[in-house]
Design a protein that fits this description.
Layout lengths: L1 E6 L7 H15 L3 E5 L3 H6 L2 E4 L35 H11 L4 E6 L1 H12 L4 E5 L15 H22 L2 E6 L6 H9 L4 E3 L7 H13 L5 E6 L11 H13 L3 E5 L11 H19 L5 E6 L2 E6 H4 L11 H9 L12
Parallel strand pairs: 1-2, 1-4, 4-5, 5-10, 6-8, 6-9, 7-8
Antiparallel strand pairs: 2-3, 10-11
The structure holds 6-O-phosphono-beta-D-fructofuranose.
6-O-phosphono-beta-D-fructofuranose (F6P) binds next to loops.
């Protein structure tokens, strides 16, 4: 068999480990031919690729980024130009046939899974692998990239503690996550955040400031406020951290500073757990292809690696649900999520 691998959407640690997992298993275990498609779906549209041999897949396990490159190309989005617009899906199918591929492994997040499901409708065999630091792909317990990002963000919060303590300040840190607050929640908990604001829980600034003032009155020398980038706020504020810090300053007079962690969360070498997860996902993808099982996304359920239908995943988002156990435990410890705060609790 001859398979293609592409990485699409925002990058994250573990992409190369996944490419290696798919590629090595396909070549070593099943004797398949593997090609790497450049820059996500753009590579399929432009027929840009390179043959990946086993030696080329060595030495990439620990590398951040993706050796294939990535893009946010949406091949099924209708172009605004009525004239001169190319039929991208048609081109993709043509190139898939010309390259004599038996399957394309699409490594990506929600958008990629949606596009992969649409490729399947064109008659292309696809397998999806879920990655993203946001951990918001439906149908799997966890995406690779998440564990590494939790580590990076936790390290950043740890460092804020010491400087916050020196200056007796309130530190607001903005963590990535537009629609899902997994990363802010996990890093916030691992880093001992006092306030954690995520898009899934509606917050009230009066609650947040009352909580912070109460801490100050209890002679707590400083506070750490962890904020997901996607929390609701007045439209004019591009940065969640800036808005929250400014509001805290204005309402309380507390000496407050903001930090936006940004793309550091997506860069660098994957954590050991992400290397293992990406390798397991990749190897499983090759096994599915060998068994000629397509139209699936590789997933994790407990400790088992399995798969779910791409059509079930497409268009869905996995957010922090109501009643999440970590949130419940955090509340028990006195962490404030901005929705309510009872002094006497
Ligand atoms: O990969 C997911 C993510 O990191 C989001 O948390 C973030 O909002 C987004 O990507 C930004 O990525 P880009 O600027 O590459 O579109």
């Amino acid at each position: 068999m001859r398979i293609g691998i592409l990485t699409a959407g925002g990058d994250c640690p573990g992409l190369n480990a996944a490419i290696r997992g798919v590629g090595k298993t396909a070549i070593v275990k099943y004797g398949m031919e593997v090609i790497g498609i450049s820059s996500g779906f753009l590579g399929l549209i432009n027929k840009e690729y390179e043959v990946l041999t086993e030696p080329q897949l060595s030495g990439i396990l620990t590398l951040g980024g993706t050796i294939l490159g990535t893009s946010r190309e949406k091949p099924f989005k209708k172009s605004k130009e009525i004239f001169n617009s190319i039929d991208k899906p048609k081109l993709i199918k043509k190139h898939y046939d010309e390259l004599e591929l038996d399957c394309v492994v699409c490594i990506g997040g929600n958008g990629t899974m949606k596009n992969a499901a649409k490729l399947a409708e064109l008659g292309i065999n696809v397998i999806g692998l879920p990655k993203t630091i946001d951990n918001d792909v439906w149908g799997t317990d966890v995406t690779f990239g998440f564990d590494s990002a939790v580590g990076i963000a936790t390290d950043a919060i740890d460092r804020l503690h010491s400087t916050a303590n020196s200056h007796k300040r309130t530190m607001v840190i903005e963590i990535m996550g537009h629609d899902a607050g997994w990363l802010a929640l996990y890093a916030g908990m691992a880093g001992g955040g006092d306030v954690i604001l995520i898009p899934e829980i509606e917050y009230d600034m009066d609650v947040v400031t009352k909580y912070l003032l109460d801490r100050a009155n209890k002679k707590k020398p400083y506070s750490i406020v962890v904020v997901a980038e996607g929390i609701k706020r007045p439209e004019k504020y591009k940065s969640a951290a800036y808005y929250i810090a400014k509001t805290i300053r204005d309402k309380t007079g507390l000496d407050t500073r903001e930090t936006i962690l940004g793309y550091i969360q997506r860069g660098g070498s994957p954590s050991p757990m992400d290397r293992i997860l990406a390798t397991r996902y990749g190897a499983y993808a090759a096994e599915l292809i060998h068994k000629k099982q397509f139209g699936l996304m590789v997933s994790k359920d407990g400790d088992s690696i399995g798969s779910v239908l791409l059509t079930d995943v497409a268009g869905k988002l996995r957010i922090v649900p109501k009643g999440n156990r970590l949130v419940a435990k955090a509340r028990g410890l006195g962490v404030c999520f901005g929705d309510y705060y009872c002094k006497d609790e």
